[in-house]
Design goal:
Elements (H helix, E strand, L loop, with lengths): L5 H15 L2 E5 L5 H18 L4 E6 L2 E8 L5 E9 L2 E6 L2 H14 L3 E5 L4 H6 L17 E4 L5 E4 L5
Antiparallel strand pairs: 1-6, 2-5, 3-4, 7-8
Helix pairs in contact: 2-3
């Protein structure tokens, strides 16, 4: 049996944390989710046209650490051990500006980015039937979100229904 490596463990932790992360979505009370998705798509296209990708490449040198080896005669030698090899990395220098442009476009359409906490098990049980949110409800401090297996979500505001 092969033991789980660090990459597998980190991947599993990431999946678990993503499941507990709050829902971050563009929100406008009374707007339909499909209208938000349509506006978001238009804003992404607009931002991409205004701020196209600018792919740059940078070299990241290797990191090394010294270690000393002594032979049977007592002669010691110091060597450099490579910890991480040198590599080239490509990145989009305009990514953050494009994201800001997208966010300004959504704000111009009346949508603001909000984070809604995940519902606890009691709120999930009380929110039956579980169907995806079609229209954004009013939000309060008690509002929470349920992630559905379909990848969609349901926003629950206790006492508002």
């Amino acid at each position: 049996m092969k033991p789980c490596g660090l990459p597998a463990l980190l991947g599993a932790m990431f999946v678990l944390l993503a499941a507990c992360a709050p829902l971050t979505v563009y929100y406008k009370q009374g707007a339909s989710v499909s209208a938000m998705e349509r506006t978001l798509n238009e804003c992404k296209i607009t931002a991409l046209r205004k701020v196209p990708p600018r792919i740059l490449t940078r070299y990241i040198p290797p990191t090394t650490a010294p270690y000393t080896h002594c032979d049977a005669n007592g002669h010691c030698y110091t060597f450099q051990r490579i910890i991480t090899p040198g590599r080239y990395e490509r990145y989009d220098a305009n990514e953050s500006l494009r994201f800001k442009t997208e966010r300004l476009c959504m704000a111009g359409a009346g949508f603001e980015k909000v984070s809604i906490r995940e519902c606890d098990s009691a709120q999930v049980a009380a929110a039956r039937p579980l169907s995806a949110t079609q229209t954004f409800p009013p939000l309060t401090e008690a509002s929470c979100a349920i992630r559905l297996k379909s990848g969609r979500w349901k926003i629950v505001t206790p006492g508002a229904e």
